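Notes to self after the call with IL:
- keep both proteins in one doc
- input above output, always
- annotate only the second one for now

Protein 1:
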Amino acid sequence: MSHKIGVIGNDNSVLIYRMLGFDVYQTANDEEASRKIDELAQDDYGVIYVTESVAENILETIHRYDDEILPAIILIPDHTGTRGIGKKRVQDNVEKAVGQDIL
């Protein structure tokens, strides 16, 4: 069984991912982004990439899926660069899995 991959963010940041074959969703506001994550989670998406600029305003929605196997929600930088919250999530998850910060 294969799962789909989606990308959520503003138009300047996510259009490039369409060329890679990912389903791209441009969001205009925080409520729309939260709603889209919930929709994709129910629609057999295995991975949802969310730009950090969108994610920083909807962390509560993203945290709801932290203990779920699917979908994996991965934070990515947008066209303005990284804000560090994606890297911090990876560090926190590695620390939780291993018991210490090895990064």
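Protein 2 (the one to annotate):
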Amino acid sequence: MTGLRIRRLVWDGLIALSGAFAFFAITVALALAHGGATLTVTPAEVAPGGIVTVKGDGVAAGETFTISLQGPQLNLILGTVYVTQETFEQGFAVPTNVPADVYQVRAVGEDGDTLTAELTVSAGAVAAQQPESTVPTAELMQLDRSKPPLQLVVIAGAVVLSVALGIWLLRPRRQPEKRD
């Protein structure tokens, strides 16, 4: 075998391997996008002093979550939940001093996994019909932008695949030698 044929076989193998990796990466990305854990809060609107039920589905058994109520000017821990199976459900009282507004109920696990759901705290029956608007502030809102490790691996693999494919596409083509 000539050196040119060997290089050609190596590149063909790399392309086939890259295609298989791309298929795997797309499959994993779709699974991560649709199969994650969820958090629900019922009722979605409550008066201060009311009880809400926080339910988490698709979470790891044996994990402990800290449940908190967060808003533009409030960060209040409501309690903790221990997961016995792949779900949890527990009631929490909204303190009477919580101002009417739209809040995030956050469940943060020991390993940093964060689930969120929206909760409206209303001042009473009038506020239930028409929620109060939030007051804009100059304070920055903290957003959790952490990613699961598998998602980071898939992204890094896609970058490596793109670079390798780009280098392969930009390589100079050799003209076949003419034989007389």
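Annotation: The radius of gyration is 26 Å. Residues 150 and 156 are 10 Å apart (CA to CA).
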